[in-house]
């Protein structure tokens, strides 16, 4: 994926260059880029979920449009602690976009601009129940939004609010694919959310025939007074089938938008979303006289609302949103790695200018990209003995010409530089290396881009003369399908994520890898278990062939890691591995496949 220029950040980087490292603790104002990994939406490559508000229909004269302004956005951030705001641009209803494009579009832009200024995520929603009838207009609108806002991490495109009882595969998916293609021709990576049949409830139907593409999620809507466990079951089916969900609209009342607050069912829904890391926006930030409105009639159109100006549903929504948290920590994957170690590039402790995106490299997960001259990342390491170390970098670059400088964070000491060649593509990977002299002790290293135009998947630091590893390491969270598991941040060496919440009957499957020779292979698993008693089975994905099974011992804690292994016989060729959980109660960080002599 090619780097592009964020004007302000790049100007700062060019001006200050490596001197920025001295201010590594001070974050530049921005939000983390969102990406999709399996059934999760990640922020900055780490699991995260956000809570916020959906505005009411933008339609001229409907009443809700008075809240489409910067003062309201600022109040939601500072008083409600909202992390996301949704602009519900009415399309085909009276005085919507089709009848008043200038007025509705101006309101949308006012909120988007304010959200960016306040560092909130913002959902641009094509708020229609019949979007397939207005494909041409949708394409033109989202092309304009992508041209205007596509370089901002803040912006999320919701291309269809609530389809009615229409076919997913025959109607909604073809419409969505056309709009997505138009967006992707301009904006290659911002999150896109697609509505699902029956008022965005049939997410299970979408999960059986997902859209091809990157960074695509699916809309789930619920109203706690009408929708209960049966809809959570449909949502769980969709997650089990591997698609990510975003609740772009929910209410604590009935599906009509009115009625009493269903507190117990709302709590059940929030537990469901929280434990699965699903983001959500409450309907609606308006003063219409109905149960779903957060504000009492006549509440100020500029924010500043007292507790008495909130409805019962508004009071509950504010409690939920302000207490949600759910975002990534400022140092998302940062742990102190003791050498020798392989550190995932996205497990930086601080950075400037870069973004994290999914990788197609052999070990899956994420890579760091959008690297321009002056960008940097820092990593905490412990060097047990002073001496010569081989530092390897897993890189990809379409044009080549990049230069990596390894230095002490904050500048001053430069350990060495290495050139990044052209690899033939942004996801065509190779390994470059150099030998440097490192002092002993705990320290923070920095990777500074002296010249940009490359991606980094990982860096590997080992004493000079160490044996060269020959195995293929597969990160546990890089599955392409799963049932029953969740990912979480790991404290294991190298940082990143591990897979957890493994119960009997759960399973994971992984993208195919190519084994050049058949024979005996050592399979190692990096596991942690508080109580032990677990058992895993290595198989061909789907279970048609079982290669071997292994017991998981107690390690004394869910983040106390050890490596277990067994030897299996594997045929040559493309192998798509699966791991079946026969007995649960353990976590998995990675597994490694190594040909034995």
From TrEMBL:
Keyword Protease attached: no
CDD domains the record matches: CBM6_cellulase-like
One Pfam family from the record: CBM_6
Signal peptide: 1-29
Alphabetically ordered keywords of this record: Glycosidase, Hydrolase, Signal
SMART domains given in the database record: CBD_IV (SM00606)
Record domain CBM6: where: 341-462, 472-594
Keyword Hydrolase: yes
UniProt cross-references to PANTHER family, sorted A to Z: ENDO-BETA-1,4-GLUCANASE A (PTHR34142), GLYCOSIDE HYDROLASE FAMILY 5 DOMAIN-CONTAINING PROTEIN (PTHR34142:SF1)
Family of this protein: Belongs to the glycosyl hydrolase 5 (cellulase A) family.
Name of this chain's protein: Carbohydrate-binding protein
């Amino acid at each position: 994926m090619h780097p592009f220029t964020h004007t302000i950040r790049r100007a700062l980087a060019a001006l200050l260059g490596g001197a920025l490292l001295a201010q590594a603790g001070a974050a530049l104002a921005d939000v983390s880029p969102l990406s999709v990994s399996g059934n999760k939406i990640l922020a900055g490559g780490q699991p995260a979920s956000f809570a916020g508000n959906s505005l009411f229909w933008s339609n001229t004269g409907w009443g809700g449009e008075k809240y489409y302004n910067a003062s309201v956005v600022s109040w939601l951030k500072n008083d409600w602690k909202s992390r996301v705001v949704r602009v519900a641009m009415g399309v085909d209803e009276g005085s919507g976009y089709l009848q008043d494009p200038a007025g509705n579009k101006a309101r949308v832009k006012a909120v988007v601009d304010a959200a960016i200024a306040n560092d909130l995520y913002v959902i641009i929603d094509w708020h229609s129940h019949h979007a397939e009838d207005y494909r041409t207009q949708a394409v033109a609108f989202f092309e304009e939004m992508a041209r205007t806002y596509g370089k901002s991490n803040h912006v999320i495109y919701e291309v269809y609010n609530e389809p009615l009882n229409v076919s997913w595969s025959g109607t909604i998916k073809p419409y969505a694919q056309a709009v997505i293609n138009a967006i992707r021709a301009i904006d290659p990576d911002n999150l896109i959310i697609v509505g699902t049949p029956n008022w965005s409830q049939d997410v299970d139907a979408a999960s059986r025939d997902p859209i091809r593409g990157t960074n695509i999620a699916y809309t789930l809507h619920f109203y706690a007074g009408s929708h209960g466990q049966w809809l959570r079951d449909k949502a769980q089916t969709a997650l089990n089938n591997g698609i990510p969900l975003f609740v772009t609209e929910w209410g604590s009342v009935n599906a009509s938008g009115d009625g009493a607050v269903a507190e117990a069912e709302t709590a059940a829904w929030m537990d469901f979303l929280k434990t699965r890391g699903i983001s959500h926006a409450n309907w609606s930030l308006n003063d219409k006289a109905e149960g779903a409105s957060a504000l009492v009639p006549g509440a100020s159109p500029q924010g500043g609302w007292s507790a008495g100006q909130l409805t019962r549903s508004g009071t509950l929504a504010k409690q939920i949103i302000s207490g949600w948290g759910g975002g990534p920590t400022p140092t998302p994957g940062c742990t102190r790695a003791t050498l020798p170690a392989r550190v995932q590039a996205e497990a930086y402790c601080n950075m400037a200018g870069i973004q994290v995106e999914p990788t197609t490299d052999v070990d899956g997960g994420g890579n760091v990209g959008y690297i321009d001259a002056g960008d940097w990342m820092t990593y905490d390491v412990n060097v047990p003995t002073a001496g010569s170390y081989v530092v390897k970098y897993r890189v990809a670059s379409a044009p080549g010409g990049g230069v990596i400088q390894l230095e002490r964070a904050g500048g001053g000491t430069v350990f060495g530089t290495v050139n990044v060649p052209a690899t033939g593509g942004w996801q065509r990977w190779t390994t470059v290396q150099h030998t440097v002299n490192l002092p002993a002790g705990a320290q923070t290293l920095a990777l500074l881009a002296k010249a940009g135009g490359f991606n980094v998947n990982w860096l590997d630091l080992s004493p000079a003369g160490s044996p060269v590893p020959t195995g293929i390491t597969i990160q546990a969270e890089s599955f392409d399908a799963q049932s029953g598991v969740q990912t979480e941040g790991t404290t294991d060496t190298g940082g990143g994520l591990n897979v957890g919440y493994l119960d009997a009957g759960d399973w994971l499957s992984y993208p195919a890898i190519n084994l050049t020779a058949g024979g005996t292979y050592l399979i190692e698993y990096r596991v942690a278990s508080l109580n032990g008693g677990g058992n895993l089975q290595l198989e061909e994905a789907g279970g048609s062939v079982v290669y071997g099974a292994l017991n998981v011992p107690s390690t004394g804690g869910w983040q106390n890691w050890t490596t277990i292994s067994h030897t299996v016989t594997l045929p040559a060729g493309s192998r798509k591995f699966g791991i079946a959980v026969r007995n649960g109660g353990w976590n998995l960080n990675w597994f490694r496949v190594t040909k034995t002599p």
